[in-house]
């Protein structure tokens, strides 16, 4: 087959395996890069499957293009992580192209922020998703656009969402001295009123439009800003983020669910150039790109890589955070047992979970003697460990596990429900209108919002699974702990020839709802006894909640339990907004 391939593909493992089917896709990518024009309001979205080598091919295309005397176009390429930025820039400079900049916060501050006009002379600039998002709101964007023709965004951009809840209210309030707390409360009171008003809403998201006099906000900001310098760096960042949130919670339509009021700055939108490309392997299963067909044009690339040598085990189990919490002792232990029983010396295993379960999983592994484990925090480098634990939000774009042969997906990457509504706003460019925001059995009843929810979760799972076996002929074992057939079908449709599938069940007995009800009743009794045992006086709800080990989202439910209501009716306690008075 070598003689049939163009010279640039003669040593390409994918070209050698799949021939013209692969070559045609890479040539099409080059054609879209160098010959298309979308206009600055439109984006071509290409869903080349994960692990196909598209990032390397883009660098090869740029290498050839920059070597041509007649080349005139300049490029801006957006990468998820700084590590990718540096690697890509080094590749091109290593090929003799020195009009290339991999922009990070360090060299922006030390060099380019002092001479931003010079960026227009740079042929290729690599920036992060974070910088691309910041440039939505910054006048500096003009320096990145001037004299630049092609924009390539690698992976989906996730725009920020600001959330207000009682936990955040308490946390930020604690950073301020008493005089400032009074002004802080004035700013927060309308939001707290909405939280109280919607506290009893179940199985539904709600629209929120909080109102406040602009002078109240400006007065608070003017008082707080001089105080910021006295805070520790992390605290200052959190307060600054809160100050940004104020403008959103009062200046836009927000969504409420389960104690959260969330909103997003409407200025966070994709901005483009003459030719805009988004490379997202999960674009066709992610509902977001289908919301605005005038802006996002999905050009389906089909799948090439053959997965007929792979095994897909689907363990039927509700792997939401709450259900894992309820069953974690048995479920995590059984997962570890299965790993131990089938472990071979040559195995390299990636375990993907919710971040809150990473250390627990690590502990279970150590208990059975599996010590060659890395909990892959952002700042840590992979050092050849046999087992790696990672989590959603810390995975996409990482290629450390490309040769791993086994993967366990333990947990569904659900977002807070109101976040899906904000993703809809960010990608659709239209309002919610009169669409229903009701929920049933953990999903939106409205088809459009359900498609955003389903698409997001499916895309995250697909991207997570594609971290391993990024080779031309994969032989991996993929274990999915998941009981949503709709998601399983959607995800596995993106793995060509994923025919070796088996539906399995765990051996342990899943705790049922009646057990949860019994546990809740027991804890309510404990809370009632705790309150009866307190000396007379006023106590913050937070102190009572923490003393009883009850998380903030569920505390209001406990206060409505008959055992607590009885104390209120008997005049033994008074429940107020932030306090409980024991009489």
Characterise the protein shown here.
- By secondary structure, this protein is of the alpha/beta class.
- It folds into 4 domains: 192 residues, P-loop containing nucleotide triphosphate hydrolases (Rossmann fold, 3-Layer(aba) Sandwich), CATH 3.40.50; 102 residues; 194 residues, P-loop containing nucleotide triphosphate hydrolases (Rossmann fold, 3-Layer(aba) Sandwich), CATH 3.40.50.300; 70 residues, Orthogonal Bundle (Arc Repressor Mutant, subunit A).
- Helices cover 41% and strands 16% of the residues.
- Helix 15 crosses helix 16.
- The termini are far apart.
- The model has no long low-confidence stretch (mean pLDDT 93).
Features:
globular, Rossmann fold, 7-stranded parallel sheet, 583 residues, alpha/beta, 4 domains
Report a brief summary of the structure:
The mean pLDDT is 93. Helix 9 (178-197) runs antiparallel to helix 10, helix 14 crosses helix 15 (447-465) and helix 15 packs across helix 16 (485-492). This protein has 583 residues and is of the alpha/beta class.
How much helix is in the residues?
40-55%
- Strands across the major sheet, in which order? 3-4-2-5-10-1-11
Mean pLDDT across the residues is 93
Q: The biggest beta sheet, please? A: 7 strands, parallel
Topology of this protein?
Layout lengths: L12 H6 L1 H16 L7 E4 L7 H13 L8 E5 L2 H13 L5 E3 L2 H6 L13 E5 H6 L6 H5 L4 E5 L7 E3 L1 H8 L4 H20 L8 E3 L5 H11 L8 H19 L2 E4 L2 E4 L11 E5 L16 E4 L11 E5 L5 H22 L6 E5 L4 H10 L5 E3 L11 E5 L14 E5 L6 H12 L10 E2 L2 E2 L2 H19 L11 E5 L3 H8 L8 E4 L8 H20 L4 E4 H7 L4 H8 L2 H8 L3 E3 L3 E4 L1
Parallel strand pairs: 1-10, 1-11, 2-4, 2-5, 3-4, 5-10, 12-19, 12-20, 13-15, 13-16, 14-15, 16-19
Antiparallel strand pairs: 6-9, 7-8, 8-9, 17-18, 21-23, 22-23
Helix pairs in contact: 9-10, 14-15, 15-16
